[in-house]
Write a structure and sequence with these properties.
The protein has one helix at residues 127-130; strands at residues 9-12, 14-19, 24-31, 38-41, 43-50, 53-60, 71-76, 79-84, 90-102, 105-114, 123-125, 134-137. The chain is mainly beta. The strands form three sheets. It has a six-stranded mixed barrel. Strands 5-6-7 form a three-stranded antiparallel β-sheet, with no helix packed on it. It has a two-stranded parallel ribbon with strand order 1-12.
Amino acid sequence: MSERTHSNTLAGWREWVQLPDVGVPWIKAKLDTGAQTSSIHAYEVEAFDRDGEAWVRFRIRPWQKSDADEAEVECPVLDVRRVRSSSGHVEERFVVSLPLVLVGHRVDAEVTLSNRDAMGFRMLIGREALSRGYVVDSARSFLGDRAPRPMRRRNRGAA
């Protein structure tokens, strides 16, 4: 594995995360040591075959109530897993690998694709990714870089 590891990087319970390989400069994430796998808000999820391999295409809208910095992403499917949500609902979700930058360190994370539109955070970072050198301080927030506001805002309710 080419991933560099680090130890004991302090992170708050919520952080701004970068997804540079898929063109998402910033997305607000909740760090959740109670969740095993990370999750991201994905919509227009479409499975397809590429050279006999399972792939998935989806869109990420990193800012709530805005289409700024929206990205279309295509990734190989690592797995399809049955995941129980915090409300107890079980659903099958695609799992992909997304390199992310959290508090200045790059890690590869297994991420499930789900509809997080009703959630306060577009991304959740689970303990699989956090176990690669992070210590979460539940009393602190945004210890890494802060994201700027999106340049172009659009009210979803407007025509």
